[in-house]
Amino acid sequence: MIGKNWRTLLRRGDGYFEFCILLLIVLGMAGASSADPLPSWNEGLTKQAIIKFVQTVNDKSSPQYVPPEQRIATFDNDGTLWSEQPIYFQGFFAFDRVKALALQHPEWKERQPFKAILENDMKALAVSGEKGMAEIMMTTHAGMTTEQFEKIVKDWFAAAKHPRFNRPFTDLVYKPMLELLAYLRENGFKTYIVSGGGVEFMRPWAEKVYGIPPEQVVGSSVKLKLEMRDGKPVLMRLPEIDFIDDGPGKPVGIQKFIGRRPIAAFGNSDGDHQMLQWTATGEGLRFMLLVHHTDAEREWSYDRQSSIGRLDKALDEAQNRGWTIVDMKKDWKKIFPF
Amino acid sequence: MIGKNWRTLLRRGDGYFEFCILLLIVLGMAGASSADPLPSWNEGLTKQAIIKFVQTVNDKSSPQYVPPEQRIATFDNDGTLWSEQPIYFQGFFAFDRVKALALQHPEWKERQPFKAILENDMKALAVSGEKGMAEIMMTTHAGMTTEQFEKIVKDWFAAAKHPRFNRPFTDLVYKPMLELLAYLRENGFKTYIVSGGGVEFMRPWAEKVYGIPPEQVVGSSVKLKLEMRDGKPVLMRLPEIDFIDDGPGKPVGIQKFIGRRPIAAFGNSDGDHQMLQWTATGEGLRFMLLVHHTDAEREWSYDRQSSIGRLDKALDEAQNRGWTIVDMKKDWKKIFPF
To answer: Which pTM was predicted?
Structure first.
């Protein structure tokens, strides 16, 4: 075959050319599937466990085969798909919004918890407690239409930078997890975010960054209300919590929004504990994974004592039950895409 | 080519056979796309409007082309995909559940609204009003796990029959709408149910009957609570409304669960009015359709005066704005698949 030139091949007119094309396609497909799907993961038990699970549920001859429509995989976001230190990134967004709105609210200079944010006084902010944080969240996340909020989120992501890395926040996603998302999708999985973060804070960029479309993002939310403005319907974001998608809220969110139990779940903190338990107790083969933050040099190192992303009870259960635990320092060749 | 037998063809060994197969596949595809995708729809303006819309959003050379990921189509269920007379089918389910549970509740014989149902006294039931209906719904739809409820729903659908047609309720789906769902999906649309009915009442059969998976069913819901039973997590259905997906709730449900505005919406009553308005006021080409029940002989005939599925204000707006209106009697060659 080698040595024949293209013109001869095309002239034959007996389908030989088409046959060669077909052959190249088939060989190309085989080539793609034998390449390493997780190049940023170091070789070892963690990587082997992932690949074995995916191959098994995809193997029609296995008793543990799972039909594609049941291959639901749910991922926590903060600390699982991107970083969450020194505070959840949505916190930076809220603080920046307070600063941006302060001109319209001169009274905030003397009123907590706003005063604390305007003066970068984190101690005073801590004193305001959960009530103070709730007030900040409602002030910055409600009182506008869904479309206005989407624009605010997009504009913030285009301009804001993480203080440690001096890069856009969406650069702080984990390359190994991007590979894992893609690998699962290539193997027929439907990948979902199931996060305590605000659903409308994630949807505007989740498709571009993670390949996860808006309808596959489950998160916390405020109540919405339909109103008519200039004869057109708009959805107003009300200063009232609708749903908290964290801890025991995660299985609830999964049932409400997906209506099927996942066969694989990925988290990093006690806020994901119930999601992993819910996933683990379904029938058939299951895969539960925790990202353990062990790399202070390249990212952060924290677990049982951290106020953000505490990993304590879930870590015990993972160890007892043999769930997969990613040792970030050891298992990840690269952390961020940059 | 005709006259050559298969053995000769296979013996050639030069790819000619493969070429023929390829040719057959290509011809088969062309054949499929030129066949009538909506055989149960009579020729006319309604059918033309549907096909023109689908072809336009799918035509890359058109300025009104829509990328596949934005091709979201939402369908009401009761009266749009299946019948809703003489009462919503979920009402039959609730009444049957009251009768099934009555043995465990001897006090119901003397207590409204249960007494009315046990005695088939629809007048007394009407007197109990919304409060009575809410009590029936909560008694029959809450107080069990999500898995128990799913089994109850499946068992009911396997046994219950519609009083007029003496057939399983899932037989009373509209064949023209099944064809429309399939036609949209073949053209890259993601089809959703957005119904006032209970989400967990529809999910157990929507995939089999409509080809719509659980995660694409949006509906009304009760609150859920995670509990541990024998060391295993279960989701309990609480006797408390979580969300009513009807009227102004439909755009809210669409935003909560899908997070994108549909480009096509299908309904049949004033409960779908806001969903169609919400769909209509997005940018780009849009398609809004109302099923008008005009066929008392083959199905039912009702609109402005009906207590179930009233179509009044939405009909006016559809006429004023040129939304597509299905005249069931005229436009549908067949109504049910049987």
So the answer is: 0.89
